[in-house]
User: Which sequence fits this backbone?
């Protein structure tokens, strides 16, 4: 079946490919892609073919594309893929993000926010996609359903960032998340919100994890809140020094 999909994708027009994909159940297609990816066999070619035959201009095509996109995120996070296969899939997903309508971009972003809050990420590799999805959302000019009302793409992004920064961050992904935000278009208010979240995480990390976090926070603060970031870092080390001195005095 995979070879048929790839061969149909090679035709000049996607008509026959689209018709064939419509005859398949989405779960079967996702399972086929998963099996090929785990075996390391032409997963990239198959994924490109599925995207080609799933245009966002048609509801069925857009829904199939969304299902396969989310399937790929889970695949990359599973740790079951060879490094080269995972990188190829991530690269393809990066290219495809901007083709989604705004409502689907919101769904994808919520998928990430939920996974981060629940601590269900396995390796965090898929986090490379979130800045691209949020950037595409900001560029979207239509009003989108969000919560109980309609918001612009920019307002949706703000709500998503607020939700993300209000929730739990797994200790092992704090540095990665801080690094990720440097690639997200942020307002001054959003930068301040993210900086405060990162500073709150300092006390929850092991000491050896602090230097890379300080570096990423300083890079992020080039977008704004530089003074607050520096004050927070200095306050953290002053408190650390104070505790160390107290422990030494207690030992003596």
Assistant:
């Amino acid at each position: 079946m995979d070879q048929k999909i790839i061969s149909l994708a090679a035709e000049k027009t996607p008509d026959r490919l689209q018709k064939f994909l419509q005859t398949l159940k989405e779960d079967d297609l996702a399972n086929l892609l998963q099996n090929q990816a785990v075996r390391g066999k032409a997963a990239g070619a198959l994924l490109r073919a599925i995207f080609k035959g799933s245009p966002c201009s048609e509801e069925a095509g857009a829904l199939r594309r969304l299902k396969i996109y989310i399937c790929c995120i889970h695949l990359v996070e599973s740790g079951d893929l060879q490094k080269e296969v995972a990188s190829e899939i991530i690269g393809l997903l990066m290219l495809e993000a901007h083709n989604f309508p705004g409502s689907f971009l919101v769904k994808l972003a919520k998928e990430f926010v939920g996974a981060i809050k629940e601590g269900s990420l396995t390796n965090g590799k898929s986090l490379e996609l979130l800045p691209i999805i949020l950037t595409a959302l900001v560029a979207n000019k239509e009003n989108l359903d969000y919560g109980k009302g309609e918001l612009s793409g920019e307002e949706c992004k703000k709500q998503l960032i607020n939700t993300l920064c209000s929730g739990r961050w797994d200790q092992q992904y704090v540095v990665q998340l801080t690094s990720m935000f440097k690639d997200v278009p942020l307002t001054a208010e959003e930068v301040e919100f993210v900086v405060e979240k990162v500073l709150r995480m300092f006390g929850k990390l092991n000491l050896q994890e602090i230097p890379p976090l300080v570096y990423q926070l300083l890079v992020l603060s080039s977008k704004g809140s530089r003074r607050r970031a520096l004050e927070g870092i200095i306050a953290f080390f002053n408190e650390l020094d104070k505790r160390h001195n107290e422990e030494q005095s207690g030992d003596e």
